[in-house]
Each structure stands twice: as structure tokens, then as C-alpha cells.
Amino acid sequence: MGVGDRCFSVMQIKIMRSKPHEEVGDRCYEEGMYEAAKLLYSNVSNFACLASTLVHLGEYQAAVDNSRKASSTRTWKEVCFACVDGQEFRFAQLCGLHIVIHADELEELMCYYQDRGYFEELILLLEAALGLERAHMGMFTELAILYSKFKPQKMLEHLELFWSRVNIPKVLRAAEQAHLWAELVFLYDKYEEYDNAVLTMMSHPTEAWKEGQFKDIITKVANVELCYRALQFYLDFKPLLINDLLLVLSPRLDHTWTVSFFSKDAMQHAAESQDAELAQKLLQWFLEEGKRECFAACLFTCYDLLRPDMVLELAWRHNLMDLAMPYFIQVMREYLSKVDKLDALESLRKQEEHVTEPAPLVFDFDGHE
């Protein structure tokens, strides 16, 4: 028997004759005599103190077992944090499952993991806790936020399964900060912020736009102006699907405005194409459909592509000379400007012809002028 063991045996005898085991156990614990404290706490079945002692001895499994017997959140936290420090994450998770179910303890636990850079281990802990009977909104919310930062590929699936159990405003902010646009649209839809959902899809179509989802949400927006913006979005982004969008939007659109919108787009397209024949056919179509205002607008939008004689004939035949008059005034102004320039050039040419040619110099035989 060693000196330490003999001392301990003597101390045991004194303890039994005088002070309670627990009090001496506390003294041993404070002085780092963990083996002695372990024996003393075991004798009095002080499971909480015993669990604390066991982690100092590296006996993590026994510490977890005694934490279960102690059934104290404080003990679970102490053992959990000790296991994290010892990188015994399997045991830390076993303890953590008894901590995260308390909403007011969740933040401290998360900070302890995150401050030490153990994000993966924290995610695994929360994932394991979701199936617990006492799982609460904070757990689902914090896991969603962790996904947004460290595992964005898992966030949408998590939201699809548990969107009703997360704090949506809090997760919305996290998704926006992480630029997870598809997840942001999903949350806006569930939170009934349809205007923001549509705006997000139009601002980030590559990541966020889905045809069925867009057509479903656009019919619910509060701001009707977004319906018209959606038409322009489809013309720019998905022109072949514009008819499908019109079908779902038709009850909310002003048909006169919509026709004008598309007429304007057609005029712009014709002007950009620099196709004179296309511009002329469009002008004639406006007349056939009785769209007088569109006829007048087209005269200026496609000004450079239209022949004045053709415009004059159409305006005269359809009794639209009053609408076409501003166009002819502009044409006349340009013609007169060109004539004035030609007259000025002709005058300048004639002046140059009448300039007297300089007389040649004559030198005498001595080389003098």
C-alpha cells in the first residue's frame, strides 16, 4: 500500500467518526482529490457531484450514467460541456439531448459549441433532438439558421418538413443574409407575404423562379402593379410562357391597359429590329383594330422606318390626319433642315469658284522679283 493510499485509509476512518461523507467529498473535490471524492460521493449516492467528479477522471460514460440518475439540468450541462472540452462528442450529445428541450437553456448550449468552432457537432445534436417529445420551436428555428450558414443544401428540405414549427421572421432574416433566394420565397409564401415572394422571384429568377409556384403566388399579391411587372418579367425572361401567365392574371388585369402594354412592347420590338416592313405591318394592324392612339404612338416610335407617303395615304384613308399631323410637321421640319443645309453648301461651293487665282511671280535675269 502506498503512502497516498495509507493517508486515504486514515482519512476514511476519521470521516466515518466525525464529518459527513458529502462534506469531506466536497473538500476532496476542491483540492483535486477526485478518486477520494468519487468514493465518498458514491457512498452517499450524490449522483450530481459524482458525475462532476467522474468527468475529471475521464470516465465519461459513468459521468453520463450518473447525470441520468441525478436528473438535473445543471448536472447535464456540466457534464456536456466537459465532454465537449474533451472532444467526446458522442457523450456530449447524450447530455445535450436533455438540455436542448429547455428553451431557456438552448442559447447557452449553442454558444458553447459555436465559440469553440464545433458547428458540425452542434448540427448533429439538434438533428438528433428533433424527434424528441419535448422538441420546441427554438430547436427547429436554430437548426434552420445553422443550415443557412453551414449546410445551405439542407435548409429547403428542413423548411418543407418543419416550416410550421420555426420562427419564420427569424429564419427569413437568416435566409436573406445567406442569399438563399429559393428558401426565402418559400418562407414568404408560408408567411403570406406574397408581394415579397414575387419580388424575390423576379429579382433572382435563376435561383428562385419556379413556374407553378410563381403563377400560384402572383394571383395572391396585394399590389396589382406587381401583375403588370410580372408581364414585363415574363417578356424578358420567359416570353414563350406569357400566354399561361395571362390566363391566371386575366381576372385582375385592366384589359385596355394590358393591350396598350403589349402594343407598346410590339412597337419597341419593331423599332429595335430596324425592319421597315414589320413597322409598316404593325401600323396597318393598329388601324385594322381601331387603335387610333397606338397608330399615333407608332408613328414616333418607328419614325425612322416609315415612309411619309405611306403614312399620308393611311392617315387620309382612315380620317386620321389630325393624329398624323405632328408626324408630318416633324417630317417637314427635317426636310426643310436638309434643304437649308444643301443651299448653304451650294452657296459655299459657288463662292469658292469665284475666288480670284493669284498672279504668277515674275523674276528678272538677276534673280530679283
From TrEMBL:
Single Gene Ontology BP annotation: intracellular protein transport
Coiled coil: none
Domain of life from the UniProt record: Eukaryota
Family annotation (PROSITE patterns): CHCR
Signal peptide bounds: none
GO cellular component: endomembrane system
SUPFAM superfamilies: ARM repeat (SSF48371)
A UniProt-annotated Pfam family: Clathrin
SMART domains assigned: CLH
Mapped CHCR repeat ranges: 1-92, 97-243
Protein's name according to its UniProt entry: Clathrin heavy chain like 1
Organism encoding this protein: Gorilla gorilla gorilla
Gene encoding the protein: CLTCL1
